[in-house]
Structures are given as structure tokens and as C-alpha cells.
Amino acid sequence: MIHPAVELDGIWKRFPGVVANAGAGLTVRPGTVHAVLGENGAGKTTLMNCLAGVYRPDEGHIRLDGQEIRFSAPSDALSAGIGMVHQEFRLVPTFTVAENVVLGAAPTFIDTSQIEQQVGVLADRFGFEAEPDRPVWQLSMGERQRVEILKALWRDARVLILDEPTAVLTPQEAVELGEVLRRMVEDGRSVIFISHKLDEVVSFCDEATVLRGGETVAASIPVADVDAAELARLMVGDTKVEGVPIAVAMPGDPALVIKNLSVRDARGLLAVDDVSLEVRSGEIVGIAGVAGNGQRALTDAVAGLESVESGTVTVMQADVTDAPPQQRFAAGLAYVPEDRLGVGLAPKLPVTENAVMREYRKLRRGPILNWASARSFMERIVKEFEVKIGKREAPLAGLSGGNLQRLLLGRELSGKPDVVVASQPTRGLDVAGVGAIQRLLVQQRDEGTGVLMVSEDLDELLALADRILVMNEGRVVGEFDAREATRIEIGEAMMGSAAGADT
Ligand SMILES: Nc1ncnc2c1ncn2[C@@H]1O[C@H](COP(=O)(O)OP(=O)(O)OP(=O)(O)O)[C@@H](O)[C@H]1O
Ligand SMILES: [Mg+2]
User: Fold this and answer.
1) Domain-ending residue, one of 236, 269, 297
2) 88 assigned to some structural domain
3) For residue 188, is pLDDT > 60?
4) Which of 214-218, 234-238, 372-376, 480-484 shows the lowest per-residue confidence on average (mean pLDDT)?
């Protein structure tokens, strides 16, 4: 009899005030890609952390190839053949690709060119494009993820866990990842794949297990037998997912004005190259583009997190080009960064402190924070944005990925901003969460907020935006009316062919 590659059976994991896993189970057959699905906070990451030796379950059994095992550290799981790529990467930016791959697993001293060559061979075997001698800080998110996967393969992981790997990938990179995963399972390995994007699950995965409230509600469903809608129903139960009703925009005066803006990146290259654009009150302007074409430098520069080489940024007629972030917020700007934990939230502080960070000045008297109002402010956000938190005194780092995002969005949007700059606002959210955030952005627009929204999801931009600008190599290369534009036209502009462009 062939044993399952992985069997998790009756896994319980409790945190103060929360039961993250309540008897969850998972069975993964060797040579398959197995999806683990569920709403934000359903317990997916926790269950995988139990399998990867990050947490020790309170109760339950873990069997690999039929053998019961117990891990007390991630290194135990690694030696047993289990590798996990976490939602937040754990690489050393100043080290090269090859150095990161072998870090902690190089048997003795080997010379650099030898490791680089070996890492190159490994990458080729799985169909990765990798440049082993490049420092990691120069790499895109997609490239960094490949380094994480190579790290696991270098240690000969038989089971690879990927926690929302495609959240940081462009659609093209996601397809490539799918191909790499197929190659890994053909090689006899198993992959556990967490994603909120059900169309990916349908195209990459063999079987799916669905968690709800820490329990397994559907186990090992053959994916060939179901469609994305059926999977969504299993995840959320019978609750209906509402669509986003959109009225015609009634734009007012310019709220955010960017003129001839240029920004250099860490490498000294022009990441934003002479961009001019306007967002009026009451409209949503979408920025489309393949990741890495200057979107991030643009939004960071507007938020005051990146210095400007030339040009101006004006928020509600106040020139904030050189103003510190606080002053921009005071002028009416709200910012939802792509990197939620880097600049958006402070992982070591409790939920309440994170929730009030923006309102801090209003909620304090002298240097003393008014705790009662801070708490009620936090509780309002938690209720309105349906953030699932455990103990409010616990550090924020305990929140699930999607719940972190809800908290951040809630905090930024609840201050009645005049301008919202949002990067990938729905990334990492479950189906219901995506709908809730989209409705919120549209509602803000209808109340007169100007919204600048960066997204790699073209369908999302077409559904929500009034106008769509396309960025390519740091420049705005096209502008489209979102009601009339087609995916093809926008896609062509994204690839750099001129369409309505001023090139
Ligand atoms: N270290 C921790 N301390 C306290 N609570 C935690 C911790 N880790 C997870 N939790 C809680 O356990 C529950 C499950 O979280 P988990 O991260 O497993 O969800 P998830 O299914 O991965 O969600 P998402 O799709 O949002 O990433 C959540 O309520 C979360 O707040
Ligand atoms: Mg998670």
C-alpha cells in the first residue's frame, strides 16, 4: 500500500483567546499538488506551521509516509523533507542568490563559483530562470520567491508548502510557477499550495482541502470534479458573496496632482520617469502594468517614503513634494502600501496601537494616549472591517495575513481621507474580503474621495476604476476609459506597445 506523503490528523492549536485549528486534518498523496483553501483566519497558515515544525500542535498526529513524527523545530521538519515558503520571505538581501540558497546547508566550505554553478544546475532542472551570482536585494518579489523554493529543493524537500505564493506574482509569473510545481510532482514530490485565487487552484492542483473556523469541512476533493464557484461555496458556506454596484462617477476638482515626477530607485535607475497625472475628487484612477514598472516607486513617492528627483506632488492644493509622511496625512492623504508589514503596520505592537497609529495625535492629551478612546476606535475598525483578532493586547504579528490587511485598510480609510493611494488593496483577501474592500473603495469614491489604485489584476481595475493609466518602464504609456477599454488594448500597452500614448 502506498502511504500518503503527509497525514495531519485531529490537529488542535490554540493561541490566547483564539482556537486556530480545531481538530483539522489533511491528507496529501505523493506526486500531487494539494490546495488548502479557506477564508482569512480559517487556520491554513497555522496548520502548515504545525507541519513545518514552526508550531507544536496541542493535540493531533502528524505522519509522513505512514510514520508518526514530532518536530520541535523547523530544522527537524527540513531534515524530514518538509520545506515551507512563508508569506513573508526570509532571505538575506545582501547575499547572492546562491549564498541564500545554501545558507545553513553547505556541508563545509565550498568556493563561490562552485556553489553558483551547482545552484544553477538545480534551477535548470526545475525550469527556473536564476542568476546565482546576483544579490537578492536586486530581485523582484517573483525572483525572490524562486530563491526560497530553490532553498527547499537544495535541501531535497519531498514536500514543499507554499503559503499564498502567487499573491506576490504577476499573472505571467504565476503561470510559470504552476509549471515548476508540475515538474516537482512529476519528480515524485508533493506540493501543498495555499491560495485565495480559485482559478489557479483549478488549473494547478490535483486535490483540495477546505478549512473553516479551524476545522476541515471538505477533504481531498478531486479538483477536476469541481469549478471555482463550487470551491468558493465550500469556503464560505452558504453566505452569498455580493457584487460591487457601481454608479457613474461624478468627478470634482483635482485632489491629487502629480507633475513631471521622476524618482530614482536604490540602483540609481529612473524608476519613475517624468510622470504627470491627476486624480479628481470622486473618481478612481487605476494604474495597470506588469509589476516592477515603477508603480511602487510612484506610490511610495506620493506617500513620502521615497525621495523625489524632480517634479511635484500636490494633495488638495497643498504642495507636499518634500513634506514628511505625517504632513501628507494631515493634508488628507491615506496610503495602503503593498508591503503591509514593512511600512504599514508594526508587527511587535498590539492591535490597538496599530489601529490608532494614524489617529494618534487626535486621541492623546499631551504625551498621554487616551486608552479608552483608542480602544473604542480600534473596536470600531475591527467591527466595521470584520477583522478577526484574538486578544487585543497580543502583538499584531499573530493576525492572519488577510486580517492584517483588513486592519490596515480600516485604519487608513476610516479617517475620511480626501485622497487614497492603495497598492494591491485586495491582494491576500478571501472572496468575501475582496468584495468588502472593493465596495468600500467605491463608497469612498461616491463620497468624494479621489482614489489612485495600483493593481495587477486587470479585471479588478476594469470593474472598479473610472480611468486606467498604464505604466511601462517608469512612464505612463496609455490612458483608457475603463467603461470602454478592452483587456487586449490595455494588455498591449502593458507590454510597451504604444496605445493612446504620448511616446
Ligand atoms: N501566533 C499567533 N498568535 C495568536 N493568534 C494567532 C497566531 N497565529 C494565528 N493566530 C490566529 O489564528 C487564526 C488562524 O490564523 P491563520 O494565520 O492560520 O489563518 P489563515 O487561514 O492563514 O488566514 P489568511 O488567509 O488570512 O492568511 C486567526 O484568528 C489568527 O489571528
Ligand atoms: Mg495565512
Assistant:
1) 236
2) yes
3) yes
4) 234-238
Domain that holds residue 199: 6-236
Residue 400 CA: nearest ligand 1 atom is 17
Q: Number of structural domains, the chain?
A: 2
Q: What's the grid cell of residue 80?
A: 524530514
Q: Could you tell me the pTM of the whole model?
A: 0.76
**Atom 27 (ligand 1): residue with closest C-alpha?**
401
Q: Which atom of ligand 1 lies closest to the CA of 48?
A: 18
Near ion ligand 2, which residues have CB within 5 Å?
45, 400-401
Closest ligand to the CA of 390: 1
Q: Which tens digit of pLDDT belongs to each residue from 388-404?
A: 877 777 777 778 878 88
> The C-alpha cell of 257 is what?
496632482
pLDDT in tens, 143-173: 889 999 999 999 889 999 999 998 777 777 8
Same domain, 432 and 461: yes
Q: Whose CA is nearest to atom 8 of ligand 1?
A: 398
471 C-alpha to ligand 1 centroid (Å): 35
Whether residue 245 contacts residue 213, with contact meaning beta carbons closer than 8 Å, is answered with: no
Q: Looking at the CA of 17, which ligand is closest?
A: 1
Q: Which residues of 430-448 are buried (b: 16+ CB within 10 A; e: fewer)?
A: bbbbbbbbbbbbbebbeeb
Give me the residues paired with residue 264 across strands: 270
> Ligand 1 atom closest to Cα of 430?
25
Nearest to 127 by CA among 149, 110, 108, 144: 149
Residue list, ligand 1 pocket, CB within 6 Å? 15, 18, 20, 38, 40-46, 388, 390, 394, 398-403
